[in-house]
Write a structure and sequence with these properties.
heterodimer, A: about 400 residues, alpha/beta, Spore Coat Polysaccharide Biosynthesis Protein SpsA, Chain A, eight-stranded mixed sheet, 8 strands, B: about 220 residues, Glutaredoxin, 2 domains, four-stranded mixed sheet, 6 helices, elongated
Chain lengths: ~400, ~220
């Protein structure tokens, strides 16, 4: 059997999942979510900014929060310095005395402890988080608040994209994040979210009191919290027009480190404390479709990549062997005009292309529904050529770490 | 039916339709390839007959049909390349491919015989190479030999290369193999009627050709 044949089931699942996203996107609940208008109600809101050595960006993050279109007496910003050793304390000092800002400094204990310190310091009805390397649009909070109208909603996520992508790797991540906007919006309509990301996710304070504070969560406290919310039977919503921008890793090494942390966090949470959610009919789309697909995607990503790499290496070696001794001027040059007859299409290649085209359409959809500015052409191109090469690296690294019980540092 | 189940069902139908479309598109492309091969083959059949007739008509001056013969060999080489590619895509057991290969082999034998007749009549010495291969898994060096021969054919237009699948079930080819005295030791070559077996390198293969054949390169392709 050809090694490609091993990848077919995963390609089938990927195309099925993308089709499911498309169908659900067009369904009534998602349409209703898109039609939701910014509310005039303004409950008290606190936004916690946990910081550890974020001197370069924390001021910008704080200023973008202060620029939010929301009654000043109802919006509180809590800057939590988690024992930074750089100039973060100094950068925060300039905001001391601001009527909307509270600054807390504590011993370093990890992001979850910084968030908990912020939660303990506020009595606001709705509590948000914003990573200290992220920024928000002025109308973002106005988009978030109406989602809490449903009393079953315990958390609301925003529409994230990359802040000023510069190199190809960041453009690739921007396309991926924009894809995530469609995904998050669509899955939220069937309560299928399993992560409430650091950049601008909000929680109902009463729910936090009921289910407890943030936990270490295998270095993914946002995922652990989301899973706990789901397990408790609450819903996680999404506001697709609440735009938040985050700094993204600018080198492959940094990206691998970040994504390995995310993937190991997912695997350890899902295969550990939250295993009960997987395949659980009571948890609907999340239990029956989203979590199983996410687990399969990790295995599928590794297997498809390995099969492709193996095939490529096999063909390259065979081609090199066949061409040995023949002048390079003959082997490397194309002879004659383009001829469709020699178009190297295969079932595997066409299925891959189908999956990629579906991904592109979901990326474009994400940009449209969130009204995110900027050009995505470079993002889509780099996503098409880069993502399939780098993503398997962190999937492989993460699964190996989990299998071997290896723990890595956050930074 | 719940929204989740309904959407999953619709997504499944869409997936099946998409995969079906991909399979259909691939089959359509392969059929188009076969159709193209058949069209070239038909044209070559007419050309063979035309060349044969031309040769008979010009019994007194057969050399006038030599130009037509050279162009015909070029088209035959192109058909060979396409057939080889189609075989790699559709498989060696594909009945249409096998049928086309049989027809192609007949055309090659025919062209080879005409070339010999023309050479005798016109007192010329064309350089011909018969190449016998197998893709039944019993010829480890056949791919390398075939590629090296393609290089020689493309680089030296005066060289006429005829490739035959040794295992092809075709009476005329079996007779041809017997007449040329080719043993089942593949890859096998008959270069200017002198048999040569095995392939080690391009240099070694070049040595089997008459001296001076590869002295000049034109860079043109048949």
């Amino acid at each position: 059997m050809s090694p490609e044949a091993f990848a077919y089931p995963f390609l089938f699942i990927a195309i099925f999942f993308e089709s499911f996203i498309l169908v659900t996107f067009l369904s009534k609940p998602a349409r209703a979510a898109r039609a939701r208008t910014p509310n005039t109600e303004t409950p008290a809101v606190a936004v916690i900014v946990p910081c550890y050595n974020e001197a370069a960006t924390v001021a910008g993050t704080c200023e973008s929060l202060l620029a939010l279109d929301y009654p000043k007496e109802k919006l509180e910003v809590i800057l939590v310095d988690d024992g930074s050793t750089d100039g973060t304390t100094k950068a925060m000092a300039r905001f001391r005395g601001h009527p909307q800002i509270r600054v807390i400094r504590k011993e370093n204990g990890g992001k979850h402890t910084a968030l908990n310190a912020g939660i303990a310091a506020t009595s606001a009805e709705i509590i948000g988080c914003l990573d200290a390397d992220s920024f928000v649009e002025p109308d973002a909070l106005r988009e978030i608040v109406p989602c809490f109208a449903n009393s079953r909603v315990a958390a609301v996520t925003a529409a994230m994209s990359v802040h000023r992508p510069k190199n190809l790797l960041q453009h690739m991540q921007n396309a991926e994040y924009t894809f995530g906007i469609t995904l998050r919006h669509t899955l939220a309509s069937i309560n299928g979210l399993y992560v409430t990301p650091g950049p601008f996710s909000f929680y109902r304070h009463t729910t936090l009191k009921e289910i407890g504070d943030f936990r270490y969560g295998h270095q993914t406290e946002d995922m652990e919290m989301a899973l706990r919310i789901q397990r408790a039977g609450y819903e996680i919503e999404n506001a697709p027009r609440a735009r938040a921008y985050t700094k993204s890793p600018n080198t492959i090494a940094k990206l691998l480190k970040q994504r390995t942390r995310w993937t190991t966090g997912f695997l350890r949470n899902i295969l550990g404390e939250y295993r009960c959610l997987v395949g659980n009919r009571a948890h609907g789309a999340l239990g029956m479709l989203v979590l199983p697909t996410a687990l399969i995607a990790i295995g599928g990503g590794i297997l498809t990549f390995s099969a492709t790499l193996f095939n490529f290496a096999r063909h390259a070696m065979a081609a090199a062997e066949v061409r040995a001794g023949v002048p390079l001027s003959y082997t490397l040059l194309m002879r004659g005009p383009f001829d469709w007859f020699y178009l190297p299409v295969s079932f595997f290649l066409l299925l891959g292309a189908t999956m990629l085209v579906a991904s592109f359409s979901l990326i474009v959809t994400g940009k449209r529904i969130s009204k995110t500015p900027g050009n995505l052409v470079l993002g889509i191109v780099s996503y098409a050529f880069l993502y399939g090469l780098v993503a398997p690296l962190w999937l492989l690294r993460a699964t190996t770490d989990v299998a071997l019980g290896k723990r890595r540092q956050w930074r | 039916m719940s929204l989740l189940a309904r959407n999953a069902l619709i997504a499944l139908v869409i997936t099946i339709v998409l995969i079906g479309t991909v399979a259909y598109a691939l089959s359509y492309l392969n059929n188009a390839r076969i159709a193209e091969l058949a069209a070239i083959e038909d044209q070559l059949s007419i050309d063979t007959l035309s060349l044969d007739t031309q040769f008979s008509l010009l019994e007194a001056a057969p050399c006038d049909s030599a130009a037509s013969s050279t162009a015909f060999t070029g088209t035959l080489a192109d058909l060979g390349d396409r057939l080889s590619y189609a075989e790699s895509q559709l498989g060696t057991d594909n009945p249409q491919v096998v049928r086309l290969k049989q027809h192609y082999s007949l055309l090659e034998i025919r062209d080879y015989l005409i070339t010999k007749k023309l050479a005798a009549a016109c007192k010329t010495k064309p350089i011909t190479a018969l190449y016998f291969y197998s893709n039944a898994g019993d010829c480890a060096d056949c791919d390398r030999a075939g590629y090296a021969l393609s290089y020689l054919r493309d680089t030296y237009p005066n060289l006429r290369v005829y490739s035959f699948d040794y295992n092809l079930d075709l009476g005329a080819l079996e007779t041809f193999i017997a007449l040329e005295g080719v043993r089942r030791s593949l890859p096998a070559f008959v270069i200017n009627e002198k048999p040569f077996y095995g392939f080690t390198s391009l240099e070694e293969l070049e040595k089997q050709f008459p001296k001076g054949v590869f002295a000049t390169t034109t860079g043109s392709t048949l």
